[in-house]
Amino acid sequence: MSNEFEPKVVAFVCNWCTYTGADLTGTSRIKYASNVKIIRFPCTGRIDFMLLLKAFANGSDGVIVSGCHPNDCHYTSGNFHARRRWMLFRNLLDFLGIDIRRIRFAWVSAAEGAKWAEVVNETVAQLKDLGPYTEYQKATEFLVANENELTEEMEANHA
Amino acid sequence: MRELQDTVKALFDKGEIDLFIGYEKGTRTPRPFFVHKAEDAENLIFDAACSGNLAVYLTRKDLTGGKKTGISASYYALKSIAQLFDENQLKAENLRIFGVSEEGSVQFFDSVAAIKQHLSATPPPAKPDEDELVGKINAMTASERWKFWSDELSKCFKCYACRAACPMCYCTKCIVEVNRPQWIQPWASTLSNMEWQINRVMHLAGRCSDCGSCGTACPLGIPVHLLTHKMSETVKEHFGVSETKENVLSTFKPDDKENFIH
Ligand code: SF4
User: Fold this and answer.
1) How large is the average pLDDT for residues A17-42?
2) For chain A, what is the domain count?
3) How far is CA B72 from CA B75, B109, B121, B222, in A?
4) Residue B173 to residue B184: CA distance in whole angstroms
5) Which domain holds residue B224?
6) Which of A114, B74, B220, B222 has the fewest CB atoms below 10 angstroms from its CB?
7) Domain count, chain B
8) Chain B residues with CB inside 8 Å of A80's CB?
């Protein structure tokens, strides 16, 4: 067994295009990285930005967000709304110093089984280069992670 | 100053208003002042130091409910008022809106359209300090930015003064009070403090007047107004200035341009 780092990836995908596309990847017997856990949503419009943050907080090293190509949304405009939200969200995260290279946005249609495999493989390969996202996970445990430092500080203040 | 005081006095004398929202002299900086009768109008002031956004009080039902209300509004307060109208939060018939300038001139606005026209004809006040700080943060590497913001936001103790100071944060139930599911831990901790600010800024995207009151309000001096300032810039950059009532995030254009979705 190799000791290579295996990133954990959560994929938020829409039911109509990408989920069906990922199904096609399987039925076409295309092999792809098994690091990804797929979560199915009715539509990209339903993918709340907080879900991405929660994925990171709970130990994901990367996230994939994918849905129908523009003009192909089952609900006509969910992906257009989502696209605007991602544009602003991604910028804000970058300004905060959150590593946006760890979020992969894609359009994968129900016919693009091969593309889905590619998206996952590329994401996993990039995350292997980037390593685990400890920076963010550390912040989830700020008090725990800084316990020694904080105790020292407190003791210094009392002395 | 005289002009403002006389105008407000006359409004009370004619019975046109029951309440006027303005500023009076404070201990160190001016503070909000609520005029209930004509003779109090002489305490009203307005100058460059009156930097809070008074529009925040207009949606406070306990304060303005059932009252004919007048307000002295800075550039940013006017911007917030226009936005509140667009979001159907204000009724024109109960309101007397006066734009005030630092030089003391007073301008009455009889409609939202008049406010909007004034706003589009007036260049927004320059924000050299904010621009400089945002520039500095932009120039950092991502890890430096992360260090900067996680240090800053680790101080936040979730008093929500930034929210209370904001005219656009008028929801009676804020996301931080929602507990099914509980999106954001209610106690203060670095990550949940960050999540709080990310939510605040996302919910204000395209609605924020960029007045900076959130940053001024923070008792710990966390520069949270830089986040909204940056967001305002981002919105302008990607979507320009909206001519319609619709909010940036509740509309779209089929040809919105991005370069990161593959
Ligand atoms: S005002 Fe400052 S301390 Fe209070 S919640 Fe906002 S950022 Fe945190």
Assistant:
1) 96
2) 1
3) 10, 11, 19, 28
4) 14
5) 128-250
6) B220
7) 2
8) 252-254, 256
Indicate which residue's Cα is closest to atom 4 of ligand 1.
B159
Q: B214 is written with which tokens?
A: 């959130």
Q: Is the CB of B158 under 6 A from ligand 1?
A: yes
- Distance, in angstroms, between A84 CA and closest chain B CA? 6
The residue contributing the CA closest to ligand 1 atom 8 is B156
* Sign of the dihedral through C-alpha B118, B121, B122, B123: positive
Domain that holds residue A22: 9-131
Q: Is residue B257 part of a domain?
A: no
**Residue A122's closest CA among A66, A84, A67?**
A66
pLDDT beneath 50: ranges in chain B: none
Residue A151 maps to a domain: no
ipTM for this prediction: 0.93
Cα A132 to Cα B9: distance, rounded to the nearest angstrom = 66
B24 lies in some domain: yes
Beta-bridge partners for B35: B20
- Mean pLDDT of the region A99-115: 96
Which of B133, B191, B208 to mutate to test binding with chain A, by most A CBs within 10 Å of its CB? B191
Q: Is B160 in the pocket of ligand 1 (CB under 6 A)?
A: yes
Ligand 1 neighbour B159 (Cβ under 6 A): yes
Written as one string, the DSSP assignment of A90-111 is HHHHHHHT--GGGEEEEE--TT
CB-closest option in A71, A91, A96 to B194: A96
Statement to judge: residues B134 and B115 lie in one domain: no
How far is C-alpha A41 from the chain's CA centre?
14
How far is Cα B250 from Cα A111, in angstroms, rounded to an integer? 29
Average pLDDT over residues A35-39: 97
Atom of ligand 1 minimally distant from the CA of B200: 6
CATH number for the domain spanning A43: value is: 3.40.50
